[in-house]
Amino acid sequence: MKGASKTLFLALSLTLITVVHYTTRTDDPHIYFVHVIFANLYLVPIVFSAYWFGLLGGLLVAAASVILYAPHVILQWPGSAMDRASQAGTMALFLLVGLAAGHLSSMEKRERLRAERAEARSQRRAIATAITTLEQALKVRDSYTRKHSERTATLSMALAKRLGLHEAECEAIWLAALMHDVGKIGVRDDILLKPEQLTDKEMEMVRKHPVIAEQILKPIKGIEPVVAAVRAHHENYDGTGYPLGLKGEQIPFGAQVLAVADTFSALTDDRIYHRHEEVGEALRTMETMAGNKLNPRLFDEFKEMITETVSEVDSQQSYESGTHENRNG
Ligand SMILES: [Fe+2]
Ligand SMILES: [Fe+2]
C-alpha cells in the first residue's frame, strides 16, 4: 500500500468508526455493548498508523481519535461522573496504545535499517575484496590492461558525474570500467601480447573477453548493473558491436558511458600494438565514431569535458612557466 492509500484508509476508518459510534444507541443495554466495541475500534487505525508511520503516526491518529471521541462524552453522557471517568480512561488508552505501538514500530524500523546498513557494508567489503583480487590477477597477467582499466575508470567516473548520474550509478560505472577487460585473463598470451596485427581467428578469441568477464564477475552478488555494463562494453551504438549486437538504448547506459571513455583511453594509451594518439587527434578519430560506435550525445559531453580539462592544464602550465620566467628574470 502506498503512502496516500494508507492515509486515505486511516481517514476513512476514523470517519466510519465515529459515525457508527455516535449513531449506536446508549440507552438500550442489548445494544450498548456494540456501542462500546465501536468505541474500542479506534485502536485499529491507531495501531495501523503506528505500524506504518512510527511514533509520530501512532500519536497523531491517537490524538485524532481523542478529538473525535471527546464530544461524545460531553454530549451523550452529561452529568455522569463515573461514566466520564471511564470514557477518559478509554481516551488515555488511545494515547497509550499510540505511544507504545509507535515506539515499538519506530524501534523495529531503526533496527531493520541498521541491519540493512550492516549487510550493505559487509557486501561492499566482499565486493571490494573480490575486485582487488581480480585487479591483482590482471596486474600479474597483463599490466597494460590494468593501467588502461584504471584510466578508463577515472574517465568514466568523471563523465558519469558530469552527466549528473546518482552516486550509486557513478560507482557502478567506475567499477564496470575498472573490470571491463578482466575477461582478457582468459585470452592466450601469444594473442593478448602479440605486437603485430591479429588474424581474424585471433580477433575472434579476443572478442570473447566481455563474455568471459561476465562469467568471472557473475558470482559476485549485488553488482548486476556492473556485470551488464561489462558484458556490453563492446556493443556499438548502431548495433554492429558484440557479443549481442545491441543497438542504441538497448545497450545498458553504463556500457555506453564506458565505451566512450574506453575508446579515448585505448587511443591515447601507449599500447604494444599501436602508437598512442595525441588528445586532439584522438578526439577527431572519435568524432568519426559518434553515432556509429559511440552514443553521439555522450561523445559531445566527453569532448567538452576533455577540452575543458586540457585548456585548464594548459593555462595552469603557462601560468607556472610565466612565474618561473619572472623569477629567473
Ligand atoms: Fe574490452
Ligand atoms: Fe578496454
TrEMBL record:
Keyword match Zinc-finger: no
GO CC field: membrane
Limits of the HD-GYP domain: 123-318
Membrane-related topology note: Multi-pass membrane protein
Keyword field: ATP-binding, Kinase, Membrane, Nucleotide-binding, Phosphoprotein, Transferase, Transmembrane, Transmembrane helix, Two-component regulatory system
GO biological process, alphabetically ordered: phosphorelay signal transduction system
Segments crossing the lipid bilayer: 7-24, 30-48, 55-74, 86-104
Single GO MF descriptor: ATP binding
Domain HD: 145-267
Subcellular localization: Membrane
InterPro entries cross-referenced by the UniProt entry: Cyclic_di-GMP/3'3'-cGAMP_PDE, HD/PDEase_dom, HD_domain, HD_GYP_dom, HDIG_dom, KdpD_sf, KdpD_TM
PANTHER family reported in the protein's UniProt record: CYCLIC DI-GMP PHOSPHODIESTERASE TM_0186 (PTHR45228:SF1), CYCLIC DI-GMP PHOSPHODIESTERASE TM_0186-RELATED (PTHR45228)
Family annotation (NCBIfam families): HDIG
Protein's name according to its UniProt entry: HD domain-containing protein
Source organism of the structure: Candidatus Abyssobacteria bacterium SURF_17
